[in-house]
Design the sequence.
């Protein structure tokens, strides 16, 4: 029927439904549910059981994994994480991503580039996605501290995992998953050599964290600090496009 609304898979009338829970989080949700039911019905501590049951819903919500519609364009860099842009600054890329690898494939170099930091609160979706399509060339895990991920120094001091993707044209794009104050584990879904599409799921960070994206030289951001990001959908930048933007208060 002309004008009929459809969802992003072309099925029926578009309507809201609770997103599926990622398999990585199901065991945490079921464990929390079991504890809540034991406390509520076996121990009969209602004052504690009901809050635990509410917490169970929060655990399932934390690991929700909604579908995303990824913008198409070879030069587009999309947000790898849900959350708020907490910082945009010029920095040298992480040492782990700077030089060529053992096969001579280039890294990001040592010249300062624009870094976009996206802070994820415990209320955001925590599935991280590839900012560009290409081949995973490098994954470097660095142990560290668990400072507030909203702090600038978290990029150098917190537990983190650097990922380098080589696009089809050979250009490298890097990003970093950073554990936060509450987060205690970075979970990868990919390994070196894997081919990923832009917006494809590549990992998650449990319970509050941050993701940094390093834009190629000669590329300006299309987002501003304080702006909300949707992983796999929001366009962070267009490679080679230099066009600074200004926010407008409304």
Sequence:
């Amino acid at each position: 029927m002309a004008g009929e609304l459809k969802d992003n898979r072309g099925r029926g009338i578009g309507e809201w439904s609770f997103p599926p829970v990622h398999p990585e989080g199901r065991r945490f949700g079921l464990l929390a549910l079991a504890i809540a039911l034991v406390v509520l019905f076996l121990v009969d501590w209602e004052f504690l059981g009901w809050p635990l049951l509410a917490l169970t819903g929060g655990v399932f919500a934390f690991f929700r994994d909604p579908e995303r519609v990824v913008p198409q364009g070879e030069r587009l860099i999309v947000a790898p994480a849900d959350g708020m842009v907490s910082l945009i600054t010029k920095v040298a890329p992480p040492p782990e991503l700077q030089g060529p690898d053992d096969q001579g494939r280039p890294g990001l170099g040592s010249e300062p580039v624009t870094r976009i930091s996206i802070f994820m609160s415990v209320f955001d979706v925590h599935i991280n996605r590839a900012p560009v399509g290409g081949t995973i060339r490098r994954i470097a895990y660095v142990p560290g501290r668990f400072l507030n991920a909203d702090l600038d120094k978290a990029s150098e001091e917190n537990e983190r995992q650097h990922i380098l993707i080589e696009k089809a044209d050979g250009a490298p794009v890097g990003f970093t998953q950073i554990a936060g104050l509450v987060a205690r584990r970075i979970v990868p879904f990919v390994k070196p050599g894997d081919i990923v599409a832009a917006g494809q799921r590549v990992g998650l960070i449990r319970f509050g964290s941050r993701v940094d994206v390093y834009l190629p030289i000669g590329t300006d951001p299309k987002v501003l600090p304080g702006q909300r990001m949707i992983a796999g959908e929001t366009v962070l930048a267009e490679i080679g496009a230099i066009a600074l933007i200004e926010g407008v208060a409304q």
